Amino acid sequence: MIATQQAASAYLHACKLELTAFKPGNVSVYSDGHGMSVEDFILSSQLSAAPLTDFSVGLGERIYNAVAATRSQLECNTNLGIILLAAPLLQAFSLDKKKQILRTSLQQVLESTSVEDADWCSRAIRLAAPGGLGSSERYDVNTTPDVNLLEVMRAAEDRDQIAAQYANYYEDIFDFAMPLLMRYREPESKSVIEDLYLAILARWPDSHIARKFDPAEAETVSDCASSLQKQLKKCSSYKQRVRLLRQADEAFKQAGINPGSSADLTVATLLAHRITSQGAIARIQGIQTQADQSAQFHQPTINEGEIICLSTKR
Is 303 inside a domain boundary? Predict the structure, then answer.
């Protein structure tokens, strides 16, 4: 019971925290978008928390139940990617009694998935209707799978960032996003979460954008995120930083661009950090907290006329 309560608390905390950061193109307390509001995402996390932490049922069924709970009150797909990423992490958290490292427990969770898990997950994706994970040469979410969930995700890893995390055992989170987050004294501050989101978007072209537009557009948006990162480093105040973020946010949303997969990975990183910071599971292998950086900005001010590179494709 205690583990369940802690898992639900960590999940709700990560979901709420991510919304406090200004993430260009994505929904936040600063800006709604794409027919979705902050309230939609808060409600989604509240509806999905209990199903995700009901460890009496299998991983795939928990994923389906969390999606079904969300869709019972919301007509749009707000949190499929978050649910898919959070479910294995929360299950690994529940294995705390074995006193294992989170990364090790997570690998065990993924490798123990079943055909039944894959079936439940396929049903969840169909219910969420993301226009996305879709089909491959080997597997299709519209048919009954004959392999376990890990194999289904491996078949989709080249075109979906969420599936790729299953396939590589969350390598992108453990080896890139978590170390980046833990360099800061205040890893849960708004500016740090914004930096995390932009770093993820700059490093990997967002698969949600690639599906909606094309891979070339996703590459362009990643280049824009990289450019924005450099400009934000020159800000001398958070007010100036917000002005740049708002400019990028408006341009992205006018073009219909939503880096949804990058936002999902941001939530998953915050969740993993929250789990480990609670001390219920040993520190992640190979990651050490470094208090050598902060969210303060002391670099020279940017020129007011400097223009952020932004995609305008619709």
Answer: no
pTM score, whole prediction: 0.87
Q: Is residue 18 part of a domain?
A: yes
Residue 217's domain comprises 2-277
The pLDDT of residue 91:
95
Q: Which residues of the chain have pLDDT under 50?
A: 98-99, 132-137, 280-308, 311-314
pLDDT recorded at residue 278: 63
Token pair 């583990």 is at which residue?
3
Report whether 207 contacts 218 (CB < 8 A). Answer: yes
The CATH code of the domain that includes 162 is 1.10.4200.10
Sequence-distant (6+) residues with CB within 8 A of 131 are 211, 212
Among 74, 113, 86, which Cα is nearest to 12's? 86
d(CA 151, CA 231): 41
pLDDT value for 145: 85
- 302 lies in a domain? no
Domain count, the chain: 1
Please indicate, yes or no, if residue 153 is contained in any of the structural domains: yes
